[in-house]
Amino acid sequence: MSESQSPHLVDWAVTGKCNLSCRHCRGMIGEDLTTERAKKLAVEIAELKPNWVIIEGGEPLLREDLFELLELMRQRQLEVHLITNGMLLTPEVITTLKQLGVKVMISIDGATPETYEAVRRGASFERVVQAARACVRDRLLEAINFTIMKRNYLEIPGILELAVSIRVKRVTFIGLKPCQDYRNELLSPQEYGEAIKLACQGALKTGIEFFFDEPFFWATVKEWKLLAQVPAEGAGILFPVTTACIFGDYLFIEPNGEVKPCSFAPMVLGNVKEKPLDKIWGEALSSPLIHQIKDPKSRTGYCQSCQYLEDCKGCRSRTFVLTGDWFSSDPVCPLSLKLAVKEG
Hints:
Helix content: 25-40%
Distance between the termini: 47 Å
Order of helices and strands: EEHEHEHEHEHEHEHHEHEEEHHHHH
Strand content: 5-15%
Number of strands: 12
Structural class: alpha/beta
Radius of gyration: 19 Å
Number of helices: 14
């Protein structure tokens, strides 16, 4: 398989087990892969030569053979980013992760104990901040991850201030994807616009680097002439090769081995328990439906007249969940307000 055909990244939820009950959890299906199959999968991922691998869950540190899997990836020189809720980051775990060359990202979805603990039920704000500081001391913490929802988006300036106090250099803002009570927690186009402004203003004030994981982010920045810095080169998953939705350009693997073209897509490409990962990826590359979904020319609605369409494409999985149509315009794009008026 040529380098150009490699997935942009592989995102592997290694376990459905978790020690928390988060309001934005999308839920996990089926039983985790056995150690034998998981080890084989780690090798298959390396053979696809992705730019990097994300290891998540559930809570990945609850998988008993996690360090064995990470060691296999280290041996194959894969760049690995581990997303954790931070509650299980003991000094011993931190030392082991450092030895394995893993980059750690800790999810902190609130700048205050009240908001954070309401979102991540069962977590402790004090403990997660202590864990983040311990990782910083060992030069292990790459970023804070902050999932944006109605109940916390006004705390975006606060999470950037918290990053300053923890001494971590980056925050990743992640758009809320399909989950329980999704429509009530999802930001409106107006609120998304406000969130983008708050992130840009807060970053300029604090000097914290950030990545806003929404395809319409840079389109909105350009259209509204906001000031935002591109994350520094070499910043791992914070420096994507494209600003557009990467549906179908990477693989997401569920704990039970199901493979999807996006972490939140209601579409299964295959299961690694039934066929090798490279075969599933090859079939995805040749799928007419995925080609059509990836093609911005297939969009309907106001996206068609947007000058930023090629650079954005709109979030496909969210759009499908909200509209039932893979090709519709992204319903929560801040620029949709202006475009919808023009259309009308």
